[in-house]
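Structural prep section.
Before we set up the soaks we want a predicted structure of the protein with glyceraldehyde-3-phosphate in place, mainly to decide which crystallisation condition to try first. Input record follows.
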Amino acid sequence: MTLVGTGALLRAAEDGRYGVGAFNAVLLEQLEAVLAGAARADAAVVVQVSENAVAYRGALRPLAAAAAAAVAATGTPASLHLDHATRPELVREAVESGFTSVMYDGARLPWAENVERTRALTGWCHERGVWVEAELGEVGGKDGAHAPGVRTDPEEAARFVERTGVDALAVAVGSSHAMTERRAELDLALVARLREAVPVPLVLHGSSGVPDDTLAAAVAAGMRKINLSTHLNVVFTGAVRDVLAREPALVDPRRYLAPARAAMADEVARVLGVLGAAGGA
Ligand code: G3H
Ligand code: ZN
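Run finished without errors. Recording the tokens verbatim:
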């Protein structure tokens, strides 16, 4: 059993000054790809299930059970994280289903309401030993509402962490969710200022649009949890497309999902190297 806490992974990353890869999975093959890539890179990893993935599947528990079983079967340390939860009842269900950490996403709420809801839920999670990430300064791109210009203010971020007691903070520094091309420009000076001002690890969302060299620079400037999803879907789906184009008569899903899983595992391992996490498990 190698299920670990996200907090422990981030503490080690703070000490070693590398980035922890946090990768989303919707399908069992993607869970397997994340864990295989992490094992190959010899890196600990965060396996993420988002509220959107739960909506797609129609329920949390089957995916949670599959993820927990897949993590338990690997020799690599991995944590299980609920990503972008806007519904407190889903957070509670995740905690009861064995998730080791959750992100409560109140970024679209007015400041006072975000503080109050995040504080209450964080207290509830902490009583159960569960680590909590929150977001301040909405990272754009969801529902087509790209907002790459949004930035998190360092003083406001420090106040938010103090009032809510969260364990990590997702901040807006120029990335945008769901980019299929890697051309985002990050405000690295702001990352450094946030790191100075905020006493908990910083989380970069929307990392798919960020080129490799900028990702490495963001980690060097103090980003610690690097959330990556769309880019891996690009790789996964690209492999499916290639196989089906080559073999249009193919019907067995294993014949196109196996190459997709292998391609995604390769990319997970490669990205963990970019983050400086490889060899650290
Ligand atoms: O929470 C998940 C991430 O922020 C993923 O964003 O799909 O743009 O990589 P991305
Ligand atoms: Zn995100």
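Observations: The chain has one domain: 6-274.
Flagged for discussion at group meeting.
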